[in-house]
Amino acid sequence: MKLADYKATLSFSNGSPSVEMPVYHGSIGPDVIDIRKLYAQTDMFTYDPGFLSTASCQSAITYIDGDKGELLYRGYPIEQLATKCDYLDTCYLLLNGELPSESQRTDFHQLVTKHTMVNEQMQFFLRGFRRDAHPMAVLTGLVGALSAFYHDSTDINNPHHREIAAIRLIAKMPTLVAMAYKYGIGQPYMYPRNDLSYAGNFLRMMFGTPCEDYKVNPVLERALDRIFILHADHEQNASTSTVRLCGSSGTNPFAAIAAGVACLWGPSHGGANEACLNMLEEIQASGGVAKVGEFMEKVKDKNSGVKLMGFGHRVYKNYDPRAKLMQETCNEVLAELGLENDPLFALAKKLEKIALEDDYFVQRKLYPNVDFYSGIVQRAIGIPVSLFTGIFALARTVGWIAQLNEMLADPEYKIG
Ligand code: ACO
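Above: inputs. Below: predicted complex with acetyl coenzyme *A.
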């Protein structure tokens, strides 16, 4: 941030003296008023539940222009990353600020691959859960428990510990998510296979069994990799702010990320893709496309409490750029699996068409968000609905850890 050549003046109609506050330019986006001394100078706080006008930190990681529908990771448009890079390249970018060179890429891929196994003891910890536990309950526990298994990367004041914790989290999340799934269905866990890609390895750990070879379908592998890229970071959202706030106390990275997983679980945030698919299934069960009009009337009726899940966003007041990419992937996956006539996809398209033309949605600038199509893709791949948010957590782990490490390296960081 750079100090601007103008200041903001706050004046009061009760005769109290006015106060001047510095203004800063960010490298992109709106200027910010520095209110840090406000309380000391005026004995007053600002009031801003939900941080509608408050930038809680400085960050150079992700930028969203909600009006334009633009998303940048370290300055790179999401469209470019989703079409030209893979998820691990994106992880490298988010963590280090630049895309890797060829040799950095090879080293980084090897480093992550080397850390994909989890301590064997973790499976006994997992056994304490009920088989029908929600995967997010299991994951919150498993991620928090990493701090009990990896003592040599829990000191946040040690840059080497921070770096190795980041790699461990990125590498082990797919293993943990797949373990949570296998546990729930009573199948044996699959150990990671290091000759597969990040997404390919995850598919095998999810759907392979020890009895036979598992062949990774490249279309599904690419689709999953894209889901991971699109969910990798999204600046200061609820779960990222949770991770920063939790980490600001100096707690270890595994504990801070576990807090992020817990926050993500909520239906207004990461739980929306699960809620969206449940909504589509309910409409389908009640009569399908024929019932769409009736459902939309309920959505518009404030007293019904019904929302069109997968629509609307706190920041995007335009089409979520990730939703466009996800729709493309959705077409590819359904074609590959011969599911072009999937009734839920037809239903989703119909809902989208109505909503984009309906005054209620147009006036409120409500557009599809990434969750609207990602649920259909995941369901087609064979991922159960209850695991959708777990997949989101897996992908977002890199964003959380990059943001946490950025905060810890910031000389202005304080406990929140
Ligand atoms: N369906 C129907 N009406 C909606 C929806 C929706 N999905 N979203 C917002 N509205 C309406 C609100 O009722 C409100 O109407 P009003 O002005 O008449 O009172 C208006 O649009 C503004 O909505 P707010 O709730 O004030 O918007 P906010 O920015 O606080 O909420 C949120 C954003 C929580 C995402 C909301 O749009 C929502 O609940 N959407 C559905 C859940 C969802 O898809 N969440 C995923 C978010 S993306 C993510 O986490 C990856």
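The first strand starts at residue 2 and ends at 10.
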